[in-house]
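User: Predict the full complex structure for these chains.
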Amino acid sequence: MGIQFYVQNALGGLAYGSLLFLIASGLTLIFGLMRIINLAQTAFYLLGAYIGLSLVGQGWNFWLAGLAGGVLTMALGLAVYSAFLHRYHADPLTSLLLTLGFALILDDGILARWGGDPHAIAPPAMLGGSITVGSLVFPQYWLALIGISFLIAAIMFLSLQRTMLGVIIRASVDDEEMARGLGVDVNRAFYIVFAAGALIAGLGGMLGGPITSAYPGLDGELLPLAFAVVIVGGMGSLTGAFVGSLLIGLVNAFGKAMFPELSYFTIFVPVALIMAFRPQGLFGRKL
Amino acid sequence: MRTSTTAKTAALAVALATLALVTPAPSRSADPGPIKVALLAPTSGSAAAAGHDMVAGWELFWKEHGGKAGGRTIQTTVYDTASNAAHALDQARHAVEQDGAQVVVGPYLANEGLAVAPYTVAHRIPLFLPTVSADDLSQRQASAFIIKVAGWSSSLPTHVAGVWAYEQGYRKVATLANSYAFGYENAGGFAQTFSEKGGKIIDQVWAPLGTADYSPYISKIQADKPDALFVEMVGADAVHFLQQWSSLGLKSKIPLIANETTTDQSNIRSIAPEIVEGITSFGHFAEGRDAAPTRAFIDKYGKAEGVLPSYMATSFYTAAQWIGQAIDKIHGNTGDAGMFLGAVRQIKLAESAFGPMVLDQYGAPVENVYVRKVVATSGDAAKYAKTWNVVIKTYPHVSQFWTYKVADYLKQPVYSPSFQGYTK
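Assistant: Here is the predicted structure of the two-chain assembly.
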């Protein structure tokens, strides 16, 4: 196994990790802030992918279709949050069951609307080709996806660190009661974070589509991976979600390539180790 | 809570069974009523697309034939297995014990079939398996009550593929398959005949069903430098694999020898033509086969569904045709299970959308295997799909035992990761 093997798996792992970040970032922030474990997060991803797919079918540009998928998913997320979920923040069990219910409803809705065939999503034409360096061939789009995810991560970090909203979110994550006592409108931050989580997941559906395609049941397959990321990175930590995504992506790639018969095992080894030795995750606060 | 419900159900079942015993059997002259068929299909869950196709194929036939055979109405009820073996068994129980189903057709997945079979056999209910291809259901676990009507065995087409691959001059081949029974049987059939010819299996990679990112497996195979890759993929996994195989630049470098499901119409219909065109695969069905019954069927199906049929849809259409002929032959007297099953076993389809089919004594069809190639559609089919599988070579009258002596073949274990038909 030459250098090409390592480079290819490193790039593949980063691309898959980037995709996981788009799901896990929302998951971790929503939990960190509201104590809601959003099991519908990957269903949002799938919905975004299907909406984008339909729009591309009507001649839309890939990026615009992805954005529209994200925005529509966000609208749905907001509706769900304001109609049901907002009452149950800090009540993980009730909100968990609620979001599970919505995930199932979304799944069946998607099956009824789009049928059960797997749908391939083609990358935008200008990124459709592959890059060849010596004997290494790598899809351009996968590199682009790494870049886009890093960009989205940067925007999220800056918003958290440099804006008033970010200050409010961080303050609410650290001590919600104190923030409320100081007159901070914590509820507004809840809406914004839930909406942002749904937006990025919905957008992620289209962005990740050329890798995962879209089919009923995809959400159930991505969910354990997204949770692995959140557990490794630490609940509520964006840095954790970022590092955790890339780590799980790389472990996934090298684990499968070197020990294909142990593929699930290798992903959950880091999870088990973290649970045993650092239950709060790499970047999480002490439990 | 749960216990008391179960207890109530059990009590009810006992009461109903007693009632059934004391109620006199209807006399022969009375109207026998409809023949109740339970169609077990995954209409939700991961295999929902296949479930839809199965129901569509089955219903298309009965719609054409007025829903009757042998003078009796065929009353089909679809039971959703949710792509889950335990649920499939619950549904089979429900169909037989509460709804009085006399015949069970389906389900789809091999594990569903393996869960349902012992139950229907124990209750002496005919079980017809048009898509469940698990080798053992017509080999080491064959039963008089299980028939793969218009069906197949997983390794039947891939035995042919192994021989063909050697004849093409390939000597070192790697395999990539999903790590479950269907994958093991597909790869095993290939590995056995290929290595018996003198070829060498240099690597066997098993990927779990539901893998989105195949690039690590692909890079491992690339490092193996094989002459060709044998691949088995199902559903969304096929879509992922084919896309990534092409975008990682291997489509033009390493020839693929695909199994039937990898390039099934239900998968290739959503993939860009340049990604799939030219891929060779082995199957008992080819929607682009240039023969009158196949053309007629895809035309009918296209008009009804707007797409070209998958092998699942075709299997259930042909199974309906087959079972219908048998019921005609015994004038609707399906109450005598022995006679009914005997009639089904004697049917010979001189032609069908698959080609000619007869059953062997183990309940599996002896049928054509097609070497297929994905090409752009032409003629009327172009209305319904961009690409399809056409036949480049036909191996007629292939048995699930290939050319082996049946007794010898049954002595070897069923294909699994530890038995792939060759010495490692």
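Chain A has one domain: 3-277.
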